[in-house]
Amino acid sequence: MIINMREGASEQEIQHVVDRVKEAGYQAHVTRGTERAIVAAVGSNGRRHELQALAAAPGVAAVVPIAQPFKLVSRQVKPDGTVVDVGGVRIGDGSFVIIAGPCSVESRDQLFSTASAIKAGGAHLLRGGAYKPRTSPYEFQGLGLEALELLSEARRRTGLPVVTEVMSTEDVELISEHADMLQVGARNMQNFALLRRLAKTNRPILLKRGPSASVREWLLAAEYLLAGGNQDVVLCERGIKTFETETRNTLDLASLALVRELSHLPVLADPSHGTGRPTLIAPMSRAAAALGADGIMVEVHPCPERALSDGPQSLDLDGFSRLMRSLAEPLRAVARGWDRS
Amino acid sequence: MIINMREGASEQEIQHVVDRVKEAGYQAHVTRGTERAIVAAVGSNGRRHELQALAAAPGVAAVVPIAQPFKLVSRQVKPDGTVVDVGGVRIGDGSFVIIAGPCSVESRDQLFSTASAIKAGGAHLLRGGAYKPRTSPYEFQGLGLEALELLSEARRRTGLPVVTEVMSTEDVELISEHADMLQVGARNMQNFALLRRLAKTNRPILLKRGPSASVREWLLAAEYLLAGGNQDVVLCERGIKTFETETRNTLDLASLALVRELSHLPVLADPSHGTGRPTLIAPMSRAAAALGADGIMVEVHPCPERALSDGPQSLDLDGFSRLMRSLAEPLRAVARGWDRS
Amino acid sequence: MIINMREGASEQEIQHVVDRVKEAGYQAHVTRGTERAIVAAVGSNGRRHELQALAAAPGVAAVVPIAQPFKLVSRQVKPDGTVVDVGGVRIGDGSFVIIAGPCSVESRDQLFSTASAIKAGGAHLLRGGAYKPRTSPYEFQGLGLEALELLSEARRRTGLPVVTEVMSTEDVELISEHADMLQVGARNMQNFALLRRLAKTNRPILLKRGPSASVREWLLAAEYLLAGGNQDVVLCERGIKTFETETRNTLDLASLALVRELSHLPVLADPSHGTGRPTLIAPMSRAAAALGADGIMVEVHPCPERALSDGPQSLDLDGFSRLMRSLAEPLRAVARGWDRS
Amino acid sequence: MIINMREGASEQEIQHVVDRVKEAGYQAHVTRGTERAIVAAVGSNGRRHELQALAAAPGVAAVVPIAQPFKLVSRQVKPDGTVVDVGGVRIGDGSFVIIAGPCSVESRDQLFSTASAIKAGGAHLLRGGAYKPRTSPYEFQGLGLEALELLSEARRRTGLPVVTEVMSTEDVELISEHADMLQVGARNMQNFALLRRLAKTNRPILLKRGPSASVREWLLAAEYLLAGGNQDVVLCERGIKTFETETRNTLDLASLALVRELSHLPVLADPSHGTGRPTLIAPMSRAAAALGADGIMVEVHPCPERALSDGPQSLDLDGFSRLMRSLAEPLRAVARGWDRS
User: Fold this and answer.
1) B308: which residues sit within 8 A by CB, 6+ positions away?
2) Is the pTM of this model over 0.95?
3) Which member of A128, D42, D72, D276 lies 3.0 to 4.6 Å from B33 by CB, making a disulfide possible if both were Cys?
4) What DSSP designation does A49 have?
5) Interatomic CA distance for residues B240 and B224, integer angstroms
6) CB distance C66–A245 less than 8 Å?
7) What is the distance between the alpha carbons of residues A59 and B19, in angstroms, rounded to a whole number?
């Protein structure tokens, strides 16, 4: 940490900061400029938050961190990429994983027709919502347990491991019995009670980026999981909120490349939520493959215009086939191993 | 709802939409333009989500809602403003309520010195965090039960009712025993499991706006509470995320005026989180008073530079006194009753 | 400037940075932490951009500025607030200046009826667009010279000095003959050719904040004017672009308070563009007054539903009267001199 | 256009809207719902802005457009993609065009070493700034005419056509003598005086997207050029402003795919400005290629740490070679013609 003093800060104020830096467990190095001084706090075992609070000390202009605040998720700590095994499917090993399925599980027919179609098309994992976070209380909230049982059955039939969202600490146990991977939705990315509970499961976690979360906040949310004991974390970028309204969100593909640089965790793109427009799903999926993402998550529904949620951004079964064909060529290129950096 | 057809949509596609509109429980009125047609869905008892899904039907360009999606929070439904009673303090009756206190409860001394100072300065409610949502797992997470007991004791000593944040459904009962009002933090605004649980308490709720929540999403989060049975909801704007980095967030004061227009619920401003800069708290508080907000929530700490959380944006005890003096004149003007529209 | 070295940067890399810092005209102070080193560049007469470019040097993690990049607009350089005289109206002297008028000058009748109504209502300056920046080439682009002549005539009739927008270097001379103050619109805030030209006029400038300009970029745009020789600059916040769509823009009132802290230049709010909703103009104007703004700029039209531009956000003549009545009480409070800090 | 009436709007108010719709040159169709009415304006030859202004009429809730406001840039008007010829290089014909060069032209050596390196690496066009838009007046503003002459010479030596930015109407003629393509920078995207002037040149235009411009606003800026007579327009996305600060901007790749859908104009990505981080340039370039962009524009400098502008985001000559190698495989995949939709 660097503590920047204000122009004209007194010697007493500088000394006070030096004393507090030492009190916090660091060494203090003062550099005096022509107009202002800075105090560098040196060491790695001090109490970081005590330095941060010095922003409120007299004569201090700002406290500037010089290191990233996350540890266990950092690639510095673990240079090799993490591979997460989800019911036998490996995410992060250089392959490109396709997670597909309906936004919500609505019925046996809807789920099973989708599951067999995506299986035939080449998907690796089945997604489907049982408990749905909905902006309005008057919208469809998911079938709950019934959906979980249908997902279990779909897995038995197709062999596809299942991903589903968990919204509450109270549901973790039940959902873990039925799902191979637990998803933390974008709106719950900083639901720390939920993160702490999920750190204690033995299920891998799919952690979606919050719509206004910085990459740093996202990685710190993952840090909650790793610090709590769960190393099997896959990140998923699903678009951030910006001023642009032609797309539902702005899919921040650069964040995927950046996360691969900063962290060893695998990272996926969700072009369905990320764009909200079916016509943009194939091009953004190809883009994700080309930049080195570990896979995608897409919404597929046998009849999008009858979907109880997110129909307008879902692919129909034909659309999913076309997507997979459109991905074939770039994935062959990926497989030939272009430089993924 | 209006369903806009694409240019060149076929008669068959238009007819299909008409059929689906009727199926959803509405009447369908078609208007044919020179280049495109629109289908209006008329009625108020149909299944709204079935119309929304038509965005995915062939030939449809967009589905445009023409009514606001919230009901119980709407001023149309209840023209008179709601007054929420929090331990005898009335919010929403035209007065300007001051909620003050430390970000986190850190110790007996810290809490009691703050509580008596804000009481003396004219605050109406005491805030203090017992369970803290923190971006990093390595930051101070709150004293938990010990903090709740200190808050209870502070209430007995000062007579100030207490507001504290609840982060998890599992904590609702315990916190309700100690606090007069339960706060839903910005990051939990769309934690629907928590909202549903809080709808069943008999405690009033302070619902903070999420950092990337639109006014519409915020009101729909409140709708969860009202629809679930809890009418005592106070809204609080605490800044949204934008590109501006000189302030911690961008305090969207216009949203307060807009919420007063759209809803009957009282609404507060939180200039501490909203700006992150102590020097901006007084001017933004005066602004909130002048535009007709029902009060403010501010962070106060006896020694901000030693605070375990949010020190840099906290007022010290002197700063709180100055804030109250700075508010005196505009509040007299408010009291004389300028047009609050 | 602080140059943060990467973890594991070599001695050679550190030495290279030290050499380059000296080459750029600064002293270099190295502080070695347990994991990384920092190099502080000390001095005030070096070549700042050479330090910035070091972000690209081997072993460097980041270059962090510790001083604000603007000079002449800074309150540190000139602690007393600047007062700008616009045809006898003083902006920045503690009074609250009202600039009102139509978005575009459309006709003699429209302009003169508006001008006399706002004069009667208590406005100090008349605004009206002659050359209009319009998003689409098919929208009304302004009456040009005819509008300028009408504005001149309106000034003669009412005595109100005139503000109008200049969009191009080529129009500066002509517009200066007819207007008392030249406005730089939000979309031209970083039209540096225009700023450089306006720095050479003897007319005061109203510099609107760009819709995605940070406060720092806005003040640097003003710095172009001051550095080029024009000291008579008034700033105007008119809303920034965010994800919120219920309001046309998000009026960033905190930026006004912040600008007053950082700079000596007067600063206004434009609640018409800032909100896009007539019902929000009065509350946001009162808020601006209460926080210490130097005035407001509002759009007024005798018949908003027939306006050729910005009708939906314009007040009609009655609405303007109501606004002025709604402001009376807070302005009396301001006049009694509450603490403006 | 659809005019949504408020709930409870009177018959008189509805009739007034109907009259005004007809007055504006449209037919009016009224649909009465159970709670509110809508009025559809039918026709394509009316005065659109008169409908928009009805948002201010009594009883009106909102005016909702149902067609895109641009015409000449629309793919509906011209289904085949436009191919723009820049000194013999064709942009938009299915190939992937590489524009590379330094942010600013700084010296003969710097420009010529860069130009020959990018030529050798496979670039198609040379970029280099002669007149630079800089946030601060104290930063390097470009070499002006000297730079233009160096660019001309670099073209003669390498055969690479030249792209350079024009900031002012006054410079258009001079720059046109030296450059093959004129760039409108992001901050000038809505400098309408400049757009109108450029519509009259015979040089192709590279129109960068403004940092807070929606796709719609961007296409309307292009519409100014086409409507004014210049059909040779290439669009370039260079990142939008969002809350994320780890990257300089957020490169909105979905906007490229969307622009290809809405418009016939070619569209490029600028990953240098779009990310501000050299390590992200290669992955984002591959992504742009994979989604169907017509090319990229990247900043290259022989010694980024000595660059007078944008050094930290520039590739060095080696970095450019690596970029081109990293692109080879995806470009072969593109060449084999995957579905570009």
Assistant:
1) A49, A53, B103, B104, B106, B140
2) no
3) D42
4) H
5) 21
6) no
7) 71
The residue ranking higher by pLDDT, C125 or B9, is C125
Within 13 Å of residue A29, how many CA atoms lie on the same side as its CB? 17
Tokens 């700006």 locate to B275
Q: Which amino acid is at D227?
A: A
Contacts of C23 (CB under 8 A, 6+ apart): C50
C-beta neighbour count of C178 within 10 angstroms:
18
Sketch the domain layout of chain B as residue ranges: 2-64, 84-335
C-alpha of B77 from chain center: 19
Question: What is the edge-to-edge ordering of all strands in the sheet holding A60-64?
Answer: A27-32, A37-42, A2-5, A60-64
Task: Show the tokens assigned to C88.
Answer: 């006898």
In this complex, the chains that touch A, judged by 3 or more CB pairs closer than 8 A, are: B, C, D
Can you tell me the distance from the alpha carbon of D216 to that of A42, in angstroms, rounded to the nearest whole number? 50
Cα–Cα distance for residue pair D256/A279, rounded to 1 Å? 12
CA pair distance C93, C82, nearest whole angstrom: 8
pLDDT tens, residue by residue, B99-131: 999 999 999 999 999 999 999 999 999 999 999
Please report which confidence band the pLDDT of residue B341 belongs to, taking 50, 70 and 90 as the band edges: very low
Going by the DSSP 8-state scheme, the letter that residue A28 receives in this structure is E
Element (H, E) at B41: strand B37-42
Structure tokens at A210: 């919050």
Q: What is the CA radius of gyration of chain A?
A: 23
Q: How far is CA C15 from the centre of its chain?
A: 43
Alpha carbon separation from D184 to D196, D197, D255 (Å, rounded): 12, 12, 18
Beta strands in A60-96 (DSSP E): 60-64, 84-86, 89-91
What CATH architecture is B2-64? 2-Layer Sandwich (3.30)
Q: D223 with D236: CB under 8 angstroms?
A: no
Q: Position A321: which residue type?
A: S
CB contact under 8 A, C66 and A36: yes
Q: Which two tokens stand for residue C228?
A: 């080029």
Q: Which two tokens stand for residue D78?
A: 């011209």
Looking at the predicted complex, does its ipTM rise above 0.85?
A: yes
In C, minimum Cα distance to B279 occurs at C341
Contact B42, B79 (CB under 8 A): no
Rounded-to-integer distance, Cα B323 and Cα B298, Å: 10
Nearest CA in chain B to D242: B243
D312 and C167 within 8 Å at the Cβ level: the answer is no
Report the range of poorest mean pLDDT among B189-198, C128-137, D252-261. C128-137
Best residue in B135, B170, B218 to probe A by mutation, most A CBs within 10 Å?
Answer: B135
Task: Tell me whether strands A267-269 and A233-237 are parallel, antiparallel or unpaired.
Answer: parallel
D236: left (phi over 0), alpha (psi -120 to 50) or beta: beta
- Tokens 């930026």, residue? C255
A113 near A107, Cβ under 8 Å?
Answer: no
CA-based nearest residue to A286, from B55, D259, D333: D333
Contacts of D277 (CB under 8 A, 6+ apart): A258, D247, D248, D313
* Cβ distance of D44 and B36 shorter than 8 Å: no
Pick from D207, D158, D217: nearest CA to D181 = D207
Three-state DSSP class for residue D49:
helix
Amino acid at D63: V
Q: How far apart are the first and last CA of chain C?
A: 30
pLDDT digits over A54-113, tens only? 988 899 988 888 777 888 999 988 999 999 999 999 999 999 999 999 999 999 999 999
Question: For the domain with range A84-335, which CATH number is right: 3.90.640.90, 2.60.40.1180, 3.40.50.970, 3.20.20.70?
Answer: 3.20.20.70
SS (H, E, C) B273-290: HHHCCHHHHHHHHHHHHH
- Contact (CB, 8 A) for D94 and D295: no
